[in-house]
Amino acid sequence: MNPVLEPLFRTVKATHPKADLRLIERAYEVAAYYHRGQKRKSGDPYITHPLAVATILAELGTDDETLCAALLHDTVEDTAYSLEELRADFGENIALLVDGVTKLDKVKFGDAAQAETVRKMVVAMSRDIRVLIIKLADRLHNMRTMRYLPPHKREQKARETLEIFAPLAHRLGMNTIKWELEDLAFALLYPKRYDEIARMVSQRAPRRDLFLQEVIEKVSADLREAKIRATVKGRPKHYYSIYQKMIARGVAFDDIYDLVGIRVLVDTVRDCYAALGTIHARWNPVPGRFKDYIAMPKFNMYQSLHTTVIGPEGKPVELQIRTHAMHHRAEYGVAAHWKYKEEVSSGGTGRVKAGDMAWLRQLLDWQKETSDPGEFLENLRFDLSVSEVYVFTPRGQVIALPEGATPVDFAYAVHTEVGHRCIGARVNGRLVPLESRLNNGDTVEIFTSKSPDAGPSRDWLKFVKSGRARNKIRQWFSKERRETAIEAGKEAIGRAMRKQGLPLQRMMSGEALLALARDLRYADVSALYAAVGEGHIAAQTIVTKLVQSLGGVEGAEEDIAETAVPTRLRGRRRGGSNAGVIVAGDPDVWVRLSRCCTPVPGDDIVGFVTRGHGVSVHRTNCLNAEQLKAQPDRLVEVSWSPGEDSVFLVAIQVEALDRPRLLSDVTRSLSDHHVNILSASVATSRDRVAVSRFTFEMGDPKHLGHVLKAVRNVQGVYDVYRVNS
């Protein structure tokens, strides 16, 4: 036997004793032969990748066909080995798996190619779900070795992992893979947030571990006394799941992290309920926090009892109680389900068909319905990120919808035409508004219009939750209507700017508007115009935000002064103000430090002659300065000459994981360093990140380093820096 394969075979023998090791070795030899001479970005021989993917799959306990396909999954795409040769050498099943995993032709780039890849994966997995299991293992190994890729590639792959592959692993119940994918992607996408959570976890670990040990000992003793054989252990906390809970529950890190998680593994289902009774006899359960996923399993076959009790010292303790078989299924999902199926149907192929999971069937329906691959991908991302509610039709048929779904989502789930013609709904016999949320077990009845002109309302897009409904409503509204809305929006913004006498050309430059569109969560400038044209957001709001982004009204006025034709450079006295800057050749000219980039001594600066405002001084890397360099005749040389009475404005941005008293801790840290805060703004995003901006006066710029260091040490702050523009 090839010594390289020893670790793989050890794992295979442990998880799948009946596997055909000779077949796996032959697959390795073919892959090693065809990949010879190829290297990965890390410099390792290429064959290390297929071998690592096969090892991950062996740990999940997959069959020998899957392991062979994993070893061969890149040969057809990256080597001279053809699918026909592979089919002849290894048979139809392995060839189908390899073809399913093989990416599309390399000629197609961009989002559409990625969407097509996902779509091809979905079609292939409808024939055999093992394609998806190989794809997930492939992505996991790539994420582990992502550091060798350039930064933009890393970010793209990490985002895909977080939005598509980790949720797919969750949908297939493969939690071990899901958690590792999430943490790897989180560390790549948001390294500073990741490090801050890791730092906070390590600070609290010793105290928490003692408490955890006490709870485990008490639970174990109670179960021994009740003669229930059980394994009791702490549940690992994953950094990304801590962060997700902070967002979902809207609470601070301490409230999540101090919540101790315990897992109780027993032999039988009867023991699960007996253990639950024993635990509730010692500690009071928290009302509303008990879930029975054994009697009603989750969509991905997950089974467990969940309860939260008030433990020692009055602290809440979360418990999961399940059998060893349920635990195996919770960790390995479909891969474990495959083994279970094989054991049940002796001599069966052990293959899981898509029919076993309604969700996969639904995905296939979309695949047929959605012509635009980008849209398919967006819907898939959305559908993967939500939980489900189950509601009934008047005839008692069950329909699964995303959590928070409305009667409109229900109508489109029944039939496209029912959705388009929907005018009202009755839930549990009572009339309700179309935007009301549906709950588990609701019976929903839809009223439809008989009018030939009946159609959906654009407002529905604000509240529908399912990809299918959104898809159908968007298709209804043609592109022509969108173009009309874009024109109307553009016109409205232009009118609002003219009314305020603002520089239209400058402010409607692509960059400023694109940045604003992104801030407001629109895909591009056209989407922003369309939103204004359709009345979703007022033109005046856009103008106000644009002005703010250019440094407030003063900044906008300064822009006007810079864009207007200058008069002769007049020697206007500086009065009492000492900007600490002198203009070459004319030390008496009025000089003003621009508010958009707040230059301080030490920065490279450039001066501009403005109308009636003397010379405006910018940092050379300021965005506004970039645009003004197109008029070289207005540039003047300026240099620093700070006096003892010079005072400079400094703007800093603080980014932190949101928590109670965060703002007061940051401001106290600033005031401890004798900083005079002139203005502060705080915004908290949906992902629990608080972004604060502070503008303050400072005499000695060297002092700034100490201030930034002090703010960085505030708990939860993961980044603080001086703002440029």
Q: Can you walk me through this structure?
A:
With 725 residues, this protein is an alpha+beta fold. Helix content is 51%, strand content 15%. The protein is built from 32 helices and 20 strands. The strands form 6 sheets. Strands 1-2-5-4-3 form a 5-stranded mixed β-sheet. Strands 12-14-13-15 form a 4-stranded mixed β-sheet. It has a 4-stranded antiparallel β-sheet with strand order 18-19-17-20. β8 (422-427) and β9 (430-432) form a beta hairpin. α4 crosses α7 (92-101) and α20 crosses α23 (467-476). The N and C termini lie far apart (64 Å). Residues 104-110, 340-355 and 563-577 have low confidence and may be disordered.
Blueprint of the fold:
Elements: H1 6-15, H2 21-34, H3 48-60, H4 64-72, H5 75-78, H6 83-90, H7 92-101, H8 110-127, H9 130-144, H10 151-171, H11 175-189, H12 191-225, E1 230-234, H13 239-249, H14 253-257, E2 260-266, H15 269-282, E3 291-292, E4 305-310, E5 316-323, H16 324-332, H17 334-344, H18 358-369, H19 373-384, E6 388-392, E7 398-402, H20 407-414, H21 416-420, E8 422-427, E9 430-432, E10 444-448, H22 460-463, H23 467-476, H24 479-500, H25 504-507, H26 510-519, H27 525-533, H28 539-549, H29 552-563, E11 581-583, E12 591-593, E13 605-609, E14 615-619, H30 623-628, E15 635-636, E16 638-640, E17 648-657, H31 662-672, E18 676-684, E19 689-698, H32 703-712, E20 717-722
Parallel strand pairs: 2-5, 12-14
Antiparallel strand pairs: 1-2, 3-4, 4-5, 6-7, 8-9, 8-10, 11-16, 13-14, 13-15, 17-19, 17-20, 18-19
Helix pairs in contact: 1-3, 2-4, 3-4, 3-9, 4-7, 4-9, 6-7, 7-8, 7-9, 8-9, 8-18, 8-19, 9-10, 9-11, 10-11, 10-19, 11-12, 16-17, 19-23, 20-23, 24-27, 24-28
